[in-house]
């Protein structure tokens, strides 16, 4: 499927996982239509809606109204907003409240929010009664094109992010593109970085299409729906090929090894760097590093940086405000990343735009000298 | 395979789950041989051994010695003994300690203990890094023939037992029959009830063999290995047919609906009733209730009760010391059991020894009048 073959208003992408296959619906007003879409696919269920205070203030009432209109009884579990909510304490609290509502295995946990709520509610759905049905209603662009699809759930621990969780696929994803208009420009751009990532992994035509049409994607309307659907299709293809990340799925980490290190180096301070911004810089660094290793042309790295800069994303370590730790500390952060195996560093590298591949034997010394070269201080 | 076809010393049963297939080894001295058996199947791993204080005092040192001799580095996580350990607090503690040891996804969580440790450590293995490898080393008969096989893991919450957990299959089960000699007679009998259950579900020949040879099974030696292997084979067959309990697997709950209600009615006080004893009484009640519904002959219920009584297990509510709540409260406990769907009661009923089936439309009124008839007070 190319981007232009996707229909213009609503779009539906299917994640083909056999008996656990599920649809991702993308379109306007899907929160208002949620009850009908769920009832058509999952008859005779009740639901617990998990959300955060910010999102609930905007969308909880319309969503619960839509469920009620379709005959779906629901209870609301509203948690504090922010990354700190991805903690065992909130898992326990939410699990007990799902059980308070006497929901059964066939009933729904419905995640209404961004990545934090999706990851936490997905984990709760994965463990209460050894696995309840999950419906994702992502309300950030990042969640719509990435975290709500593919079944990764999790919470953070003292040791790091997403170190505890399960793979638990949703039964349905409802990506309401209308809610994106309430995002700040910065939040939208951060999600956009993950869309660019799919082009850079193995869809050069999609990357070229984004270079050409990004203004329409930012403006909303059919081009935005198309771009989200194309991103979900890209993710669905990867998840179908390697659901539990034994290999191929790790390509989705393009830009993430450098990106996570920069997030850690800035103390996960969203005022300085949000996840999608770290990924944007990380993707440029991955292309530059691949060029330094003579795997790709430096022109590709320049092309990637030019597009990300055009939409307003940071593209270099020097774009981050405030001081960064020295290169050897950045390398330590990379080494603590969970994608390290037996002392060798695993990176997604590239032979050019849309030609990424997994390298599991990158010498730390090569990374260190590259970081020294690119370090702004 | 019939019981007599199983080889006499060691035995190996395979749970056929495609790429996730695994072996259950049954035999003497398997704790001493654990390192070699693991290294032969899972090269280049490290391990966290989860155990409780009682079991660790007996077997932790030999197990870790065996691992070390095979070149497997291990760390020990020793928790308090008892059902209260199946709590979120201990999950969090154990998860953090697995991460402290910097274990990776391919590394092992090794559960050394009875059902409590197996359920808890299995859950930890299922959620740390979204699923690590799990090796079960069950040290009670109940765990060897039931809970260590089949991938059910979980903890208790304020709402009840095993309401939070995941399905997470082990990579290997090592059932050391030597450790069973340190069990009390009461603990051994409780595990034996679950062996009888497999015969009653769909293996009438195995039930007849147990009637004939139970003294040898209790004495130890080849007959015990045979009986454990036959039980594991029965469970493996059911798990292979219905891993996630969408239907057929629920047959394993024969005797458990009445049994759980009696456990709840006695406040989970192990001095009055342990799980296997509840199952023994529950299996007799299930056969008697099936006879009352004209599904089976009362002779079958008498035969089942006679065998369980012969080995020293309780077979009637009157065998439980102290007062029981009235029949309507017992019915409430049955109704709160998680195997209830949309107000109808789900029971495993039978048409005779080895001819159990799932009935999901049992009227509560029929259960109540049966309970009134059988109630001792």
Keywords:
13 helices, Dehydroquinate synthase-like, alpha domain, homodimer, 377 residues, Rossmann fold, globular, 46% helix, alpha/beta, disordered N terminus, seven-stranded mixed β-sheet, two-stranded antiparallel sheet
Profile the largest sheet of chain A.
Answer: 7 strands, mixed
Straight-line distance between termini of chain A: 45 Å
Q: What is the CATH architecture descriptor of the largest domain in chain A? A: 3-Layer(aba) Sandwich
Provide the structure class of chain A: alpha/beta
Oligomer classification? homodimer
> Which pair of chains forms the biggest interface, and how many residues does each contribute?
A-B, 32 and 31 residues
Order of helices and strands of chain A: EEHEHEHEHEHEEEHHHHHHHEEH
Share of β-strand residues of chain A: 15-25%
Counted up, domains of chain A total: 2
CATH class of the largest domain in chain A: Alpha Beta
Rg of chain A, Cα atoms, Å = 20 Å
In one word, what is the shape of chain A? globular
Number of helical stretches of at least 4 residues of chain A: 13
Residue stretches of chain A low in confidence (pLDDT < 50, at least 5 long) are 1-8
The fold-level CATH name of the largest domain in chain A is Rossmann fold
Mean pLDDT metric of chain A: 94
**How many β-strand runs of chain A?**
11
- How helical, in percent, are the residues of chain A? 40-55%
């Amino acid at each position: 499927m190319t981007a232009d073959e996707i229909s213009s208003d609503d779009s539906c992408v299917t994640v083909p996982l056999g008996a656990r296959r599920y649809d991702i619906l993308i379109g306007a007003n899907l929160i208002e239509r949620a009850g009908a879409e769920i009832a058509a696919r999952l008859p005779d269920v009740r639901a617990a809606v998990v959300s955060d205070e910010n999102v609930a203030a905007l969308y909880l009432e319309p969503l619960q109204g839509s469920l009620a209109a379709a005959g779906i009884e629901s209870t609301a579990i509203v948690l504090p907003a922010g990354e700190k909510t991805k903690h065992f304490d909130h898992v326990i609290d939410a699990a007990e409240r799902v059980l308070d509502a006497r929901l059964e295995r066939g009933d729904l946990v419905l995640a209404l929010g961004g990545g934090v709520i999706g990851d936490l509610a997905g984990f709760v759905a994965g463990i209460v009664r050894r696995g309840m049905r999950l419906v994702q209603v992502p309300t950030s662009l990042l969640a719509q094109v990435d975290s709500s699809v593919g079944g990764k759930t999790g919470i953070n621990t003292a040791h790091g992010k997403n170190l505890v969780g399960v793979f638990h696929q949703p039964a349905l994803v409802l990506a309401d593109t209308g809610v994106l208009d309430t995002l700040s420009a910065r939040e939208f751009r951060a999600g956009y970085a993950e869309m660019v990532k799919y082009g850079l992994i193995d869809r050069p035509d999609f990357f070229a299409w984004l270079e050409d049409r990004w203004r329409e994607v930012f403006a909303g309307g059919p081009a935005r729906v198309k771009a989200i659907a194309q991103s979900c299709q890209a993710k669905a293809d990867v998840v179908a090929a390697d659901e539990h990340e034994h290999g191929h799925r790790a390509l989705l980490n393009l830009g993430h090894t450098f990106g996570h290190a920069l997030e850690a180096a800035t103390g996960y301070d969203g005022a300085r760097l949000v996840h999608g911004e770290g990924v944007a810089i990380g993707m440029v660094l991955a292309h530059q590093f691949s060029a330094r290793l003579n795997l790709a042309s430096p022109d590709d790295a320049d092309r990637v940086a030019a597009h990300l800069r055009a939409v307003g994303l940071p593209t270099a370590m020097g774009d981050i405000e405030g001081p960064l730790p020295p290169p050897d500390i950045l390398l330590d952060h990379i080494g603590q990343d969970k994608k390290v195996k037996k002392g060798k560093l695993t990176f997604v590298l590239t032979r050019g735009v849309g030609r990424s591949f997994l390298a599991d034997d990158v010498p730390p010394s090569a990374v260190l000298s590259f970081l020294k070269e690119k370090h702004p201080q």
